[in-house]
Input
Amino acid sequence: MSQTARITSTKSRFGLQEAVNDHLSTDVLVVGGGVAGMYTAINVDRLGLSVLLVVKGLLGKSGVSPQAGIFTFPPEYTPETFDQMVKDRIAGYAYFICDQELVRKSHELSPRALGDLEDLGLYFRRYDDGSLVIASMGGIQGGEMKQPWGTLATKWGNSGRNTCSVLRSEIVRRGVKFIENATITSVLVKDGEAKGIVALDYLNGKLLTITAKSVILATGPGASIWTYYSGSSENTGDGHAVALRAGAELSSMEMVQWHMACLAWPYSLRRQEAYPFPLPPSQQAPRFFIGRQERFMPDAEVGSKALQANAVAQAIIKGAVNRRGGYYASYQHFSTKDLKEFLGPFLMLKRLGYDLSKDTIECAMSIYSIYGGIRVNTECETKIKGLYAAGGAAGPIIPGLYMSLATGIIAAESAGNRARAIELPDLDLEQAEREKARVLNLLKVRTANESSYSPMQIKKILREVMWEKMDFIKTETGMKECLERLRAIRLEMLPKMRVRSDTTRFNVEWLDAVELLNMFDLAEVVIASSLMRKESRGPFRRADFPAIDDKNWLVFILARMQNSSITLDTAPIELKYAKPSDRFEWKH
Amino acid sequence: MPSQVTVSNGSIDGSRPIRARIFRFDPTRDREPRYETFELPYEKGMRILCFLERIREQGSDLAFMSSCGMAKCGTCSVSMNGRPVLSCLESVEEDMVIEPLAFFPVIRDLVIDRTGYNATVTALKPYLHRSEPYKGYPEKLRHHEMRDHASLMECVECLCCQSICPVLDLERREKTSSQTEFIGPAPLVQLAKLAFDPRDSLNRAALALRAMIEKCVSCYECVHVCPVEVSILECALDRMREKITIAEPDSILARHIAAFTDILEDEGLVNPTALILKTKGLAALGKLPLAIKMFRRGKVKLRKERIPNINRIRRLTTQWVRSR
Output
């Protein structure tokens, strides 16, 4: 504990952190500072309960929420179009791998959440006549916009960031307590119930124990285990890993969605999506080319992630393009005014030297999100009592702003009900000390040896192996090789992992080491679940099983951790609102 | 047919490696900062963030903050060769000195402490105060009413402007305390964003006066460094000052602006003596010793001067006043 003691004397100027003791308690604890985390915390605070937010980065300025592009929820609908929208989402977005009741419930809660955001001040873009700007995402057929469609705050690509900014202000206004630069390392569980967490405050170098009546994980989809991921690099699935180790289940982690139109380069901007969707007000689609001249992906397919992925898959199979580039997006047929007004990245791309009114963008594939996640029921409860998940961390869901907001309402209610009914649990000192010792031990692994590795070096290798072998189009051999490689890396490299310095002040390598162990667990679940699903479904593609198989694989694949090893199981899916016969006519 | 794709990297042709001297400092251990030199081969379209990430991937424990990597979170700003930049957007240069954003306390290496900034913004009540209760989604709003608000929603609070502002720099040098009177451009953008929201009812003009907005000298440094091209002066500070002339007409700033316009219309050029007298009234007598000194040096003239093209200037001034 010497490290933790040393730091306390020098931290006085960090105003907010000053209030942080080594041990804290709260009614409800929320982990994650994106839209789901912040909105959950606000809703818990409204219930009159005490709430504490633990955020790995800066509140509202980290996680994947700032990258969200659009609110995929229409401002107007009828009971019929609502039913159709829910069906479309289940069939065309989740490919039936979702809890249909939770999807429907989330859609029912969306108008309330959007109204809430507007009440707090978020500006949904209007035209001068006062009508809302509607953006299409579901593909255009015969010039008509198909459902689903949504609203923008205020441009394609900026909606998440602006939502974060409004929610952050509300957190500040309400005086909700939050701790920035602190990552969860473990959920404390006793007798099958969550009692609190251990967190690493890597700014001050302190290990915090926080007891809570309810713990909500809103840590995002955790897809930063591949080299190219369109979310943020810190989204390493910490919530998934701690939930798994605490005894909760991860569901459908093989359902990974891809972006087909990210920038091919520069490297650090590979996360930037070109937003290959119809653009208001003309609702024309951007055009895609193989090489410099050959058009591919008809307008009708631009706008649906599934159809885009399908088009690129066909082109990859033909050998015309690859996931590292070779195809181009063009916006030259739009007016500069429309690009400026409605396409978020336009100005930023201009600064990079891409003038979208003249140049084309070389595109490449990138991981978009994992639709699977910490398994929750319709109340956002996990298998562990007192442990909940919201937003991208929960699963399987259709990730998006509206889903993060809706689960933010549901999780707050469930967690709040529990918090009202029970007493604050005691801290299990022995368990907490054991976990603290584990995390502290990561700081001590130091050898002056030349053959040692920094945690980031191993992270990079893990991501490269995943990128190489857990490809868009997978094979059994490739996936098995991937699993073996990762296991070998675990055995050979982890013992040689070292952090360069044992300083406790913003020690990024210490944080890397904590994240890395989470990434290994998450990657293993993704690979094992993918190996189990012997079909191709939506974005989940296998060369050895190219067809969809509803007869055998219309199931959830569940992963659990037992004695540090992953075991898999399946669970049936209740087809309450949509059946495979409702499916769009995707070409597989 | 698509044209050639380019990602600009200025004059870099890639024949030389990229070299950076990077600021390293751990306040809990080091007595003073040091600089570490890193060299990496050039990559196509390389940004500063690529460079920093590559360094980490090669085993350095350099601490820097970044999240989205696409100019949305505003956390990766650093100072490159003395210029505040957003590292995900800014091209590398062949020889760089990379330091934490100037004037902020350093947490470690390139990571700055934003606590002070956050406290300043919080004091400005950065949330909507509705004059009327919300009536339900979607509420009645037209884009032209929200245009100014929307343009300021582009700000990612990267604090580049805050670190380049020369007025803040001067105040920090003059004051012993870390608290400056002028709060700087970044918090004022947040204030202006709400001031231009027609749904907001709080007297933001009074808050701007308390924030010493009049100290801004309109030097455009903040506008030049803004990586997301927010027109900090035209869209935020100037418009805020206009709002003050209406909402707080008795304030010194409002009187100053009125006097400035009057004198310009009357004489065609700015007469500092008249400006001070009209703005401050009798209180200007307090500056008498300074005035005498300036008179001796020929800086103050008592006689009214009129420039030849006065009518043209009057026409422009009237147009300008009317346009507001």
Notes: The longest strand of chain A covers residues 206-217. Chain A has three domains: 2-66+162-257+370-429, 260-367, 438-549. Chain A touches chain B through 86 residues (CB under 8 Å). The mean pLDDT of chain A is 89.
